[in-house]
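name: query_chain
kind: protein
chains: 1
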Amino acid sequence: MNPKPDHGEQSYRGSGRLAGKAAVITGADSGIGKAVAIAFAREGADVLISYLDEHEDAEDTRRWVEDAGRKAVLVPGDLTQPAHCREVIATAVKEFGRVDVLVSNAAYQMSHESLEEISDEEWDHTIATNLSALFHLSKAAVPHMRPGSSIIGTTSVNSDMPTPQLLPYDVTKAGIANFTAALAGLLADKGIRANSVAPGPIWTPLIPATMPEEQVKSFGQQTPLDRPGQPAEVAPAFVLLASDEASYISGARLPVTGGRPIL
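structure:
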């Protein structure tokens, strides 16, 4: 990508806010997931890096996690398959003994100008990747979570201000916001918190890979800050929600939108 996204490789400084925690992060090979993995490791967490098949990118994330002195575990595979979601959590339990933080971040989107362009297969794939995976991962992880643990979904500003060309993606992001809000109530008696982070336009590989070139050129200019955000600018929101500092935050959605309000 040009310019290259900033995942916090040179800028993020940890302070032990996640010391001793074990985290699962999906889509951690690039973009927001990679930035979260780097930040979590520098805050003291071991990290399971879940990704589809971008092995070189995932190895780079592993290197940054291990450079921070933390354990990194790579698990490739397709999160649209419920069995693989369960495998991701089972691997984390085997490697770490528990799951303290689950970040469901992996996402798929494509841009279309008409409803007719959206195939049945693409609709089902988008729902399965973005939304159903969160359900299957959460269901598998909760039995291995202790009081104080945290589940974090990646929603979007699109949940409140849907982009017509991203209809399936919009639907999943609204679903994630509602899922985590409801889950917070279901898990309250277990002492497990559930929240979501709502990024605005963030400069990740998903953007040039799924949007027309003219939209990529103006990406982020619709925000009051007049630019796209960097993955490194989103990661601190996940750190907060994963940390014990957020012990009274559950059922919330934290916007990182460059000034675009979420109502």
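note: The CA atoms of residues 103 and 247 lie 17 Å apart.
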